[in-house]
Design a protein that fits this description.
By secondary structure, the chain is mainly α. It is built from six helices and no strands. This is TnpV protein.
């Protein structure tokens, strides 16, 4: 090994490391819009930040993160409504007047199934 190769100046290598971007900078969107952020926006934000950091930083620095998150929120809500309609058609709910607790349980089960589908399709992809 050449002695010149062992003396590489680390300042000349363009490496992006996590410590360059502190959590205060990356959480700026979340703090500013915390009151306006939706459930699926928050899930997508966290997923991008923790698992798709390259895409997160790209959207963040191009100032497109908010638009992306709003699009995901709207798409997720539309898809949730669509799935709930399909699930209700396939598994009709009992009459809420005769058995309200059974109706609530049934609707919660369907909503949880729809939520799981939406999250897997739109948030964690």
């Amino acid at each position: 090994m050449n002695s010149d190769q062992s003396k590489i100046d680390p300042t000349l290598t363009p490496v992006i490391q996590n410590e360059y971007f502190d959590n205060n900078t990356l959480d700026a969107f979340h703090v500013i819009n915390q009151s306006e952020i939706g459930k699926y926006e928050a899930l997508r934000y966290r997923y991008l930040k923790e698992h798709k950091q390259h895409l997160f930083l790209e959207l963040f620095f191009q100032d497109k993160l908010g638009e992306h998150l709003r699009t995901v929120e709207q798409s997720a809500r539309n898809r949730l409504d669509q799935i709930m309609g399909c699930l209700l058609a396939r598994h009709p709910a009992p009459d809420p007047k005769t058995s309200p607790l059974t109706w609530v349980w049934h609707m919660n089960q369907l909503k949880e199934q729809a939520h799981a589908i939406v999250v897997s399709e739109l948030i964690y992809n």
